[in-house]
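Quick one, tokens below:
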């Protein structure tokens, strides 16, 4: 009688495991179905992934859209002109061209981290220059032919602020020169 009992128990265990697995896979299918039924275009239009220096990790943040009036209230006239109207500060006029302190440069408009002092170098141009952004996700670029020749404009990925341009005459290891406007940046020294 012991053997058949064991077999019955084994069969019961097998059946319960089988139904548990079946149940789990059904749940997974339901989750998959519900997430695929959400509109991915809508999600990506609202949130972007950026690197946070404070958290030392990637985070999801809302994109920022503000009216000209709202930016005007928040920014100095020169920051407004540069970041929202693609202006350029006068060379050697900005406060960060000669800043050698350790820290993080973030967007004056929305606070997104953009560059670290570790990638800043002396370009001699009179504008703060970096050979790499803090993360490629934190900036966006666009072709700019406003001066009659092609340049690559650099913007904040989160709020679209104009930051400056990137050129291919920078130092190693990237060979890039991110030529930024001081008034588009806010510097936070390392603690
Ligand atoms: Zn920004």
């Amino acid at each position: 009688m012991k053997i058949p009992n064991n077999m019955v128990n084994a069969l019961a265990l097998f059946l319960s495991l089988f139904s548990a697995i079946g149940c789990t896979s059904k749940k997974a299918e339901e989750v998959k179905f519900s997430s695929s039924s959400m509109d991915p275009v809508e999600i990506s239009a609202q949130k972007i992934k950026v690197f946070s220096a404070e958290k030392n990790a990637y985070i999801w943040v809302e994109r920022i859209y503000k009216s000209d009036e709202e930016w005007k209230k928040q920014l100095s006239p020169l920051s407004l002109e540069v970041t929202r109207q693609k202006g350029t500060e006068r060379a050697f006029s900005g406060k960060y061209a000669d800043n050698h302190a350790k820290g993080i440069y973030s967007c004056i408009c929305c606070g997104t981290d953009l560059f670290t002092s570790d990638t800043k170098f002396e370009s001699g141009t009179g504008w703060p220059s970096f050979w790499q952004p803090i993360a490629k996700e934190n900036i966006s670029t666009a072709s700019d032919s406003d001066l009659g020749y092609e340049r690559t404009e650099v913007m904040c990925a989160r709020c679209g602020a104009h930051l400056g341009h990137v050129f291919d005459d920078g130092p190693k290891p990237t060979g890039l020169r991110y030529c930024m406007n001081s008034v588009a940046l806010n510097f936070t020294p390392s603690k």
